[in-house]
Write a structure and sequence with these properties.
620 residues, alpha/beta, Immunoglobulin-like, 3 domains, globular
């Protein structure tokens, strides 16, 4: 076998990312229009930054960026300079006040060897800055280069969302800010903050202190997965969890921070289901107050939900008043999902309510419940978002539907002229699902959402008419945290899939190219994210696949999926490590008749992060 094996390593370098060659200049998400030109702008300590709105938050953001990165820090109000003496070389010009009618959140970025200019109104300026930052290549302390080109850009959707569940596992303010930072870097503009659920109430409510005194902690946590082919028996850690919650001052801090990055925060206060944490604190809100509710310790749905009494509604209205005061945005998410109605079916009060309100059945109670909540929110200038179950029994008049159980609910809502946010698990937008089918992936709730599936998801269903399609206002991915207990794992599950989401949310479908995205731009951006201090899933080597290939001769071109990383391999079936051969060129193998080679590869980044091991069998 050994004598028959020919292994030839050809001295060809791995293809590295190059802004000069990439049609999108390396930017994620892909801009609307890019025209690369020759040359580069040299950013030096002498570079002057001219602005027409020195107190605008986008300008403050850019000043902070320059300062933190030890780049040019001289920012000057253009009004203070004589127009006849306005510099024309070695300047960056940031213009917010101009008459051009750019699309919403749009910007124009012009870079030549003498001058960089960004034009954008409000958020458009901020997004132009993010593109510029992605183009900056630091060369030495205080200096950098920027490739020349012209970009005109605007988003496809006005709602570009990323969700974080902090009810199942809690994440502190520092991590939430870090989460918001990476969202802003990729031009996402809505942070969906899932603050309450059966397993924890995470927001301080002054009028009802027991919500956090009791509802923010649980006796133990389920750590085994009880469903699917890789099920683990029910296991618990036997460790009290909490109390963990955000004070109202911390909520305000996060909201203000997100606003500085042009991100709206949408809080979710779950109702009428996923209410165990609240019921444990205030059992009078349930249909069986004497039952002895406790904060959920397992995952999945529970029978106990809010009871639709006047007392319950009055308490929920009080809670929502405080929530509205904390979150000045347009939306509040009121849940509405997975209400199995068992408690309502057993309740004498609910049976009488169906008669008194002439409701069809318990589905009618859900509609009645959500309509009352929506009416309360609407009178205070807030629009309600709900998961697609709010369609059951009839949709509340002004509700926005978040379609997660496939696209059916979103399609139905759009056909009823309701706004829709697409976030289907079937589209790969549940980032708690595994990123490959390998047993080497960390424990997850199940499902399969690889990067390519996320990237290829199209938010507007083809069955919708042109007018109905306008009601699809955006797209969102969700990070549920039943099995995500640490910031490191949260980032691993988030990245690089969030980059694919950002391109679906921002870029025109005709401009999308998965090969360019995954092999060129993502390779660069993962290296950038590494330097920014983020964890991420390291993809397997480009060109590798878990498969069996038949034949006598093979030429395999494998390359690194992360700029600066190396691909190590073995051919004897052993697990590869940093001590094994480096794949620096195409591999050529001759396999003898009835022979086989087991090629195993692993990607290792410069910071030591590792991919899962990929196994290819070459048989003759």
């Amino acid at each position: 076998m050994k004598k028959s094996l020919l292994l030839a390593l050809l001295a060809l370098p791995l293809s590295l990312f190059a802004q000069k060659e990439d049609p999108n200049m390396g930017i994620i998400p892909a801009p609307t229009s890019v025209h690369r030109t020759r040359g580069e702008f040299k950013l030096t300590p002498e570079t002057l930054v001219l602005v027409d709105s020195p107190n605008h938050k986008a300008i403050k953001f850019f000043k902070d960026y320059l300062l933190k990165n030890n780049l040019a820090t001289s920012v000057t109000d253009m009004a203070m300079i004589d127009p006849k003496k306005m510099p024309t070389k070695n300047v960056i010009v940031l213009s917010l006040n101009f008459k051009d009618n750019l699309p919403a959140e749009g910007y124009e970025l012009h870079i030549d060897e003498n001058r960089v200019e960004i034009k954008g109104h409000g958020a458009g300026m901020f997004y132009g800055m993010q593109s510029l930052i992605q183009l900056i290549n630091k060369t030495s302390p205080g200096s950098a280069t920027i490739p020349c080109g012209n970009i005109k850009d605007h988003p496809r959707f006005g709602y570009r969302g990323m969700h974080l569940d902090v009810a199942r596992h809690f994440f502190d303010v520092a991590f939430v800010k870090k989460y918001i930072d990476v969202m802003a870097f990729y031009k996402l503009n809505t942070f969906h903050w899932h603050l309450t659920d059966d397993q924890g109430w995470r927001i301080e409510i002054k009028k009802y202190p027991k919500l956090t005194e009791i509802g923010s902690k649980r006796a133990q946590t389920k750590i085994g997965r009880a469903a699917g082919p890789t099920a683990i028996p029910d296991l618990y850690d036997n460790t009290p969890y909490g109390p963990y919650f955000y004070t109202q001052d911390q909520i305000r801090e996060v909201v203000e921070y997100a606003s500085s990055k042009f991100i709206n925060v949408v809080p979710e206060i779950e109702m009428p289901s996923h209410a165990l944490a609240a019921l444990a604190a205030y059992p009078e809100m349930g249909c069986d107050p004497g039952k002895g509710y406790k904060v959920g310790e397992t995952w999945g749905g529970f029978d106990d939900v809010f009871c639709p009494t006047d007392e319950t509604f009055n308490m929920l209205y009080d809670i929502l008043r405080e929530v509205i005061d904390l979150f000045p945005g347009k939306y509040i998410h009121a849940g509405g999902d997975e209400c199995n109605k068992v408690a309502w079916k057993k309740s004498e009060f609910c049976r009488q309510l169906i008669i008194d309100k002439q409701l069809k059945n318990e589905d009618g109670i859900q509609s009645y419940f959500m309509e009352k909540i929506e009416k309360f929110l609407n009178t205070r200038g807030v629009q309600m978002i709900g998961w697609d179950e709010i369609l059951e029994g009839g949709l509340a008049p002004n509700a926005v539907v978040m379609s997660w159980r496939g696209e059916k609910g979103g399609i139905a809502a759009a056909q009823l002229n309701h706004d829709v946010i697409m976030t289907p698990a079937s589209g790969g937008l549940y980032f708690d699902h595994a990123q490959s089918k390998s047993s080497q992936e960390p424990l997850s709730i199940g499902g399969f959402a690889p990067l390519e599936k996320v990237y290829n998801y199209e938010p507007v269903p083809s069955v919708l008419s042109k007018e109905q399609a306008k009601h699809v206002i955006g797209v969102q991915a969700n990070l549920w945290t039943e099995y995500i207990a640490t910031p490191s794992k949260a980032e691993y599950m988030l990245l690089p899939r969030m980059l694919a989401l950002s391109e679906s949310a921002w870029s025109d479908p005709k401009d999308k190219d998965y090969r360019n995205f995954s092999q060129s731009r993502v390779a660069h951006h993962l290296a950038v994210l590494d330097k920014m201090g983020y964890n991420y899933r390291v993809p397997t080597a480009v060109g590798a696949s878990d498969t069996t290939m038949k034949g006598g001769k093979f030429k395999l071109e494998l390359s690194s999926p992360v700029e600066g990383a190396t691909v190590h391999y073995t051919i004897d079936g052993s697990e590869p490590s940093e001590n094994d051969l480096v794949c620096s060129a195409p591999l050529e193998f001759t396999v003898p008749e009835r022979g086989a080679i087991t090629l195993k590869t692993i990607v290792i980044t410069s910071s030591g992060k590792k991919s899962i091991v990929n196994t290819m069998k070459l048989e003759n």
